[in-house]
Amino acid sequence: MWVFIWVIVLKRFFYAASLAVGQHCDLPPVLLHRVLDVLRMKSGDRMVLFNGRGGEYICVLNTALKQVQVSEFIATDRSAKRQLTLVLAASFGKKMDWIMQKATELGVSEIQPIITDRSKLNRPPTESMQRRWSKIIESACEQCGLNRLPVLKPGLPFDVWLEQCGSQPIYYLDPHHATSAPSVPSNRLDLAVLIGCEGGWSARETAMLAERDDVHPCYLGERILRMETAVVIACGWFNCLNA
Fold it and tell me: Is the domain of 217 the same as that of 106?
């Protein structure tokens, strides 16, 4: 005997405003276009909205009023157990877009672009860059099921970031000065991983990092990885360690 199981996967959308059960919410023009013109959803169709503050909301569409009614709240949290801050040399173009997407899918909690001595981007990211990356993060959360958006911080020069980075341990990738793979105590749930550009760290930056007791050099093998490759491997590694 054949048994067929019909699984309905509801479409997920990021909705920046506050949400509550019983609330009627007007859909913003961009989201309305996606729902009505692209996906051809109809009145009575259900969808999932999330606002990045935890949990998700089941909503019912009303095409005549161009709004949804929130019918149910589900306290689902798919965030990684470890609070991982990704600190990386700022770049531009499709590479940085791809990194923002994959870092989000891999569960980082914060993304901090920095300007290093050898960064391709030699100035802090512009507001338009930050807005674009924020939209990519939102879209990645829609796709992967995250209900809490990673915090995208404004770009900082390397020196300024190092002064302000706080007390969390920092693991920086450096195949020239490290001899071991990353190792993190099982009870350490917050840390930062620091990834430079393909040109590596300058002697000045390496010396500044070496002065700190909370900075740990590590490597992912003898090969020199592209920045986007290192991001994927490092984020996956640190989130899986002692998980």
Answer: yes
